[in-house]
Amino acid sequence: MALLAYSRVAIAQDKVPNDTTITTSDDSSRAAKADTAALNMVDDAALADGEDAAMEPQEARGLHKELKTRFIEGSAGFMSLVALALVLGLAFCIERIIYLTLSEINAKRFMEDVDGLVEAGDIDAAKDLCRSTRGPVASICYQGLTRITESMDNIERSIVSYGSVQAANLEKGCSWITLFITMAPSLGFLGTVIGMVMAFDQIRLAGDINTSIVAAGMKVALLTTIFGIIVALILQVFYNYILSKIEHITSQMEESSITLLDTIMRYKLTNNGR
């Protein structure tokens, strides 16, 4: 019996280290899994940082670089025509803006100076002032002063006729701007239609409706329309600004003409109708 008890104790002692070994092995496995998960999290964080760093230059490119990229992706033929319409339209816009800016003067102050010289009887000084001042207002006043000895009807007809000439000079080139405003989206739409036709031709040659072929053709086609509309919008803004300046100068011309006629009438009455 003592021998049997001793053997049972020995067997129990032999089992204890095995359980301890299993427990230690399980703990090591859990620790290894935790280390692997931590490494995976670090790798994911590094990958996310790398993706953010790669996306930052793309976001920092700006709108103009994005438009440049899209412009290159479009059809070279129609994109070149749209770009040509933009360049020519802007050239006419800039020329009109410079001309109209140089034509603007302080009309009220100028007419006060002319009125003072005419009332003083110094017609030659008033003419010299008109010749040395730029713009259509001064030109109309000079035209009226050269006929100051004629009747009021002749003076008025001369001012009105010369005013029409000056108004036409202000609007010179505006018809070309409207042409390019209309032409730019039209070229874009034409490029879209031709691009769609080319896409369907590629589908016919491939013998199957491939989404990549259709998407590529539609992308090139729609880019021409987008840039045509953008060009039209840009030119339309400049054109409206030019029209506002023309209206301002035209109103100055009309107001100055009425003031000049009143000044000449007072001058004639002061000099007994001569």
Question: What is the element layout, followed by pairings?
Answer:
Blueprint: H1 2-59, H2 63-73, H3 76-103, H4 107-119, H5 123-132, H6 136-145, H7 152-170, H8 174-206, H9 211-270
Molecular structure report:
The chain is rod-shaped and about 95 Å long. 23% of the residues are buried. It is built from 9 helices and no strands. α4 (107-119) runs antiparallel to α5 (123-132) and α6 runs parallel beside α9. It has 274 residues and is mainly alpha-helical. It has helices at residues 2-59, 63-73, 76-103, 107-119, 123-132, 136-145, 152-170, 174-206, 211-270.
Helical residues, percent: over 70%
Based on secondary structure, the structural category is mainly alpha
Number of strands: 0
* Main β sheet profile: none
Overall mean pLDDT: 76
Quickly count the helices. Answer: 9
From the N-terminal CA to the C-terminal CA, the straight-line distance is 161 Å
Which overall shape is indicated by the principal axes computed on the Cα atoms?
A: rod-shaped
DSSP strand content: under 5%
From N to C, what is the helix and strand string? Answer: HHHHHHHHH
Task: Please tag this protein with its features.
88% helix; 9 helices; 274 residues
Produce a short descriptive summary.
The chain is mainly alpha-helical. It contains 9 helices and no strands. The radius of gyration is 43 Å and the shape is rod-shaped.
